[in-house]
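#lab-general

N.A. 3:47 PM
ok so I finally got the sequence cleaned up, no stray characters, all 262 residues accounted for. can someone with queue access submit it? mine expired

B.Y. 3:52 PM
send it over

N.A. 3:53 PM
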Amino acid sequence: MALLYSSGTDVRCSLEQLHQVPTPSAFSRGPSHYPVPFGDYADLVIKQLDNIGFGISEQEYAVTKDGERFFGAIEVEPHGIDKDLIPEDYRFLVGLRGSHDMSITRGLTLGNIITVCSNLQFSGDIGTVDTKQSTNIWDRLPGMVANSIKCLPSLIEKQNDKFKAYKNFVFTNPRAGDAALVEIYRRNGLSSHQLGVAINEWDKPSYKEHDKFGNRAWKLLNATTEALKPTGNNVNHFTVEKRSQVAIDFIDNNILDLREVA
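B.Y. 4:20 PM
back already:
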């Protein structure tokens, strides 16, 4: 299952290989240049996850061909805390990125849906934090990561409450789902082609688990998510992200009125 989007020129690598990417010496590219090894940053994130009781079920990394920038995505699972915190029907992800050439910030993003891509799209539906790759970065980085990661259990619980509301909301008329998808299309949350895919997913989901809860808002969300899945090598991830947010906002604020939960 792919977690990370990358171009054809990027080099996929393991965490061990990420540690082997050369790190330029400090100040070699200017008075504020202070690069942090890519592998050390990934280790910092993984250690903080472990500190609050999360393990890793899957992880992916990629480095640009010149070795100047890296991108990573980690799927987490609870081990030292409530193992049922993350339900089986969705996943929770942590994205990370950084550079040696100071072209992008050292960042961390969290969510059930994240976008981590070498075209510089970097976001999560829970939140994103970053810091400049400059002098004293190691004074800022551990605190930034720790403060973000320690919020994970409460953020996941809040997301769980939201998804429970999705699963509990029943459309009494199945065609109301079609109408909702058309309205999402009208708000530019789906292209005309994606609308057709979403309606097909509403009528007959590709995955049986998406139909488990019947004609509910949960299936509507999965229908739009499936329709918006990136395909091909020339995907505009900014558009995908924007359309996903339109769909979520419509479901939250016009169907479920989840403004206080979201």
